[in-house]
Structure formats: structure tokens, C-alpha cells
Amino acid sequence: MRSTPGPRNAITDVGGVLVGHHHVLDKEVTLGSGAATGCTVIRVPGGATASVDVRGGGPGTRETDLLDPANTVRQLNAVLLTGGSAYGLAAADGVMRWAEEHGEGIPMDPTDPSRVVPIVPAAVIFDLPVGAWDIRPDADFGFRAAEAASTEFARGTVGAGVGARAGALKGGIGSASVVLTDGPGQGVTVGAVIVANPVGSVVDPRTGLPWGAGTDGPEFFGLRPGTEAEITALNALPVKSIVLNTTIGVIATDAALDPISCRRLAATAHDGLARAIRPVHSPLDGDTLFALSTGAIEVAPVPLPGAFPGDLLLLDDLCTAAAVAVERAVVDAVLSATPIAGIPAYRDLFPR
């Protein structure tokens, strides 16, 4: 499979996918004091086929059972990624309110188009100790993030990434996209947006390079190995003291997929987390990835020998691209993050 990043190198390179943030971040934040949390909404006007794969041992989620391919509902309207642990799930109410006001949802009354039920799955990270414990996303956060959704969006210490930590470093939100340039899916785009908040490390302690730079090489990200002094400073950082974590995100493609194929896309996308975070999927993480298909591009199946369905070749390429996009998005989150509450950012330690 050959590919190239999309024009924005973001999930919004998939047509019809929009991303919006809302957060609060005081200028003076110390651990346990000041506002430092937020949420991010991935909105798909008109809906998208979707599924989900949960791998972490401590997930905080909403409406994930609905996305089981065996169940009835076939589409979602938006996905909420939020801080605030289980409290932050309340922000999904605001996303639903925004969607209802704009007629987005499952129609429930053919005589009254305003009667809809929006489908808004959600997943949370644990960021409560970074700022004040009692300040967390609520319905107003979700409404504002949905309202702000656009093709252009900030990365790093914004939205659901405000209170994120990546091991000993500041985490954040990152994104990437992959456009297939050959094979049956030529022209198809796969994108990812990831909130990196793992208990595991995102940086190789021997070189100072992000683990996620291993597939593409450090040159792809404009990086080079750290100096001896920089690596010494990295290894002197205290281990992450709060062992309640989680990395969450969304993968999107414009290739037409059914819910079962979306489930496979989400499952394989976790390989990108495994390449960028060590360890991953721990009992203390709630790692959750959603996958959605806008269905804009119908790809003709390529015949395969034997009894294998012809669309498996396309799905294989999409899964490969999803893992790459997720890996790059984790690196993007770490490189884009800025320090708060005394949590150092990668670029502080490696300014070159």
C-alpha cells in the first residue's frame, strides 16, 4: 500500500467530517487547582456508519453497545471525546441538544422532522487531578464544541487534550490523514484524531524520539535524536503519579463500509497505539477507538481466489492506513502539546 498525507494531514481530510473543541484553561494552573479540562466533538452531518473497539481495562464510555454490528442502529451523528472521567459523559447531552436543534438524528415521526433522536457515542479520559477536581465538562461544553465543529481545528493542549498527560510528559490531541495512492482503494482517505493520555511512555528513553516515529522515521516529523543532556533530563522526570489514564480517538474514512468492516477498522487501528505507546491497553487505561465511514466513495471489489470476498483487499489497505494514521496522530499530539501545571511538554525537553 502506498499513501501520502492529506492536504490538512487531519481527520477532516475525510469529506463530511468536522471537529470542534471547547475547554477551560486558567493562566495559572497547578495540580489540583484551576480550570484545566475540555471536550472535543467529531461531527458528521447526515450521519455515518460506525463501530467501536474498546481495549483498555478501565473504559469510560456511552452508547458503545449501540455500535455493536449485531445491533439495530446503523449510524451515528457525532462522537464526543472528553475529559472529566465519568462526569464528562454529561457533555454528550449538550451534543445531543445541538444535533436535535439542527434536525440531526434518527427520524421518529414522518409528520414532524424535528422529532429525532441523535446518536452520540462518547469516551472519556481521566484528567481530574490536573486542575480543580470539581471543574469538568458538562452539557454546555458539549454544545459549544459541536457548534464550533469545522474542517480546521487546533491540536495539542486544546479540547479533550487540555488535561491529558502522556506518561511523564504533557499529552494532548493530535490528528493525521492517509490518502491511498495505489491498490483498489486508490483515492480513498483515512483519518484519525487521538487524545493521548496514556499511563505508558510515548518516547524512547534511549534516543528521545517518540516511539510513534519508528514506522515513518524521525525525518518524517522533522525530528532527530536528542543530545545526551536532553535524554538525561527526560529520564530524570518523575514517573506519572496518577495511574488512571486512557487514550481515545476516532478513525474516519470516505470509503463505503458496513458496521462489521468499521469494527475491523477500529480493531486494527489499535495497532497504531501499540506502536506509539509502551505499554498500551493496560488495566488502568480505557483505550477506546471509534471508526466511522461516510460512504462517499464506493469501491468495486477486487476478485480474490477461492471463497474470500473481493472487498477484503480494500479493507486490508484501510486497516493498514488506519494504524498508520493513529500512530502519527499520537506523535502529533505529543509534539503539539504545551506545558501546564508543571507538566513538561516534549518540545521543552527537545527544543531542537
Describe the structure.
There is one protein chain. The protein is α+β, with helices and mostly antiparallel strands and 352 residues long. It is 22% helix and 24% strand. The chain is built from six helices and 14 strands. It has helices spanning 91-101, 139-148, 228-235, 259-276, 312-336, 346-349, and strands at residues 3-4, 18-25, 36-54, 61-62, 75-82, 106-107, 116-117, 122-124, 165-166, 169-170, 172-180, 189-196, 248-255, 288-297. The strands form three sheets. Strands 1, 2, 3, 4, 5, 8, 11, 12, 13 and 14 form a ten-stranded mixed β-sheet that branches. Helix 1 packs across helix 2 (139-148) and helix 4 (259-276) packs across helix 5. The longest helix has 25 residues, at 312-336. The mean pLDDT is 94.
Number of helices: 6
Describe the largest sheet: 10 strands, mixed
Order of helices and strands: EEEEEHEEEHEEEEHEHEHH
Q: Which percent range fits the helix content?
A: 10-25%
N- to C-terminal separation?
A: 32 Å
- The assembly state of the depicted protein chains is single chain
Strand tally: 14
Structural class: alpha+beta
Bin the strand percentage.
15-25%
Unreliable stretches (pLDDT < 50, length at least 5) are none
Radius of gyration: 19 Å
